[in-house]
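SEQUENCE WITH STRUCTURE:
===
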Amino acid sequence: MKRLLLPLILFLGVPGAAHAATQSPYSVEDFVRHAAYSSAKISPDGRYLAITVESGEQDLLTVLQTSDLKIVKVNRLPDKKSVGSFYWVSDDRLFFNAVRKMGGYAQPFQTGEWFAVNADGSKPRPLIFYGSQGATGRGKTVGNQRFSLLDVLKGNERSVIMEVRSPRSMEGAGTEVVRMDTLTGRRTSLGRAPKENCGIVLDAAKQPRFAVCSSSRDEQGEFEERTELHRRGDDNRWTLVSASKSDGVHLRVVRTTLDGTVYVLQSDASSPDAIGTLNTQTGEFTKLYQDKVADISRFIWSTDEQTLIGVVTEAGVPQVVLLNEEHPDARLYASLAASFPDEMVGISSYTDDGKQIIVSVYSDSNPGDLYLFNRDTGSARFLMQGRQWLDKKQMASIKPFAFTARDGQRIHGYLTIPNGSDGKNLPLIVNPHGGPIGPRDMWGFNGEAQLLASRGYAVLQVNYRGSGGFGKAFQDAGHRQWGEGIQNDIIDATHWAIEQGHADRERICIYGGSFGGYSSLMAPIRAPGLFQCAFGYVGVYDIDMMFKLGDIPQSANGQRYLRRTHGTSKEEWVRNSPAQRAAEVKIPVYLAAGARDQRTPPEQTELMEKALRDAGNPVEGMIIESGEMHGFYDVDNRVKLYTEMLKFFERHIGGQVAVGDVRKPD
């Protein structure tokens, strides 16, 4: 195995991306509007290209002819619903679900509906939906069941295999695997999981073979992450293979290939995840690769889907490690990667014969390009750009960094440097991410950081303890550390930026969303004088309120999580609540929230604003945006938010460029 440091062995005859006009800066809208496309997949025979395209409040499913990119059909769902995940079931039939796009920090909300349609728009069928029976009468209404696709069954022209999860209140609660006909909606059960809260993995024969079952409860009913791996025998009985409670490791089946190889991820309490194979008879795990610092974030599979040829880790810039460099597809990937230096290459989809491949390319300055690679000719055709209105040559660069925090913990992060800057003595925006347990910042194009950098600010993003991607031990280290260890990491990273000469110590502000909003008010309390202003966005500011309002305390799992993360001491809650320590926030503050936010309800922001005013801090502004949820989605609302934010930063630490809504000429 080797990391990709290979010479260019393939010439790609592709046109360069169209350059945007050179006028600078770009408008606020240029950075906060949504990308032109979300995903693209080629049909099994290569005749069609299906793409989800952004159109106002909706994502549409557009089908093009691969030969000339002529539009064949545009599929739009009613009631402002968007097309979410989509799949080719056969050479000319698509299967997709519906989502509602709500909130910039929340995942699109799945409506539970699934549809199928031919490439030319014929034979449309609503297959799974809620409420009435529907116009065709062929779909099936379900209660609170949730359906997800397990396999499209190559060679079967109309059927797919779905995983169905039912809530405890329903008869037959748990997880079931069904075969579904995408023309009639008829379903056939293939089996059930051994218990609740299980995910199913199919074997080479496309039968339910493995179940990974999880729980967040220990014997005392408190939070403890537990997993069990079960295997289903030929007699349809489930047998326990591994349990984290007794074995000390978590096993998750990633894929079972056609030759019977079972690929699994193994994690323990101390190290990043390892990928390997599992002997299902003995339970023996054979490790293929494990990084010393970072978890595996992505897998690279052969086009016949039988061989894992590579993995990606992301402590800083993504690193590709080829596990089987002699495999023809590994050689092909290496050639593609070498053809796009300093950019990350992904294989988005491919034809059944592996001869036509959709290649995605992105970087810190490139929002994303799509190419169609032809294996027979050895060339690639440029298809489209995600944000063609931006010139990557004018974008900022993102530099990974690492340092040792005050208690010896190794911390990684990213520093965005404005285009054309030497990276020295800059006004700095510290931008902690949300979470804090699990999410993380990653290398790649970040419209928010690019917007700030376009106005002359450096941007500091820290993968503090609790962030995902660095092993379970690092992630677990964030519990009970909202106001202490995590803030220490953010503060220490800020001092690192000053000591390295990147930041002007007199011109530093802090801004973040969700947990980042919490940090934007707590970090100035913990480090008086370090920050000149703070902008809190859809944040949590009072821990006691977090136990009472919002969607987290509505479930038993959520309540256990809150106790694990915050404890049960009211004194500790007060100590870690910015709203209870508002008198210590002695810098200008601006707050923003969504009026319909269920994760961090607007009452959190209103309480923080009142506490600051009662403490004599004249909050400079507060936005409670109607219709918005956990992060603003509407482009006009986003423009308003970031325009106000830039004006706020300009007043207090002043970037090198005036705020203005400058637009490029057509």
The mean pLDDT is 89.
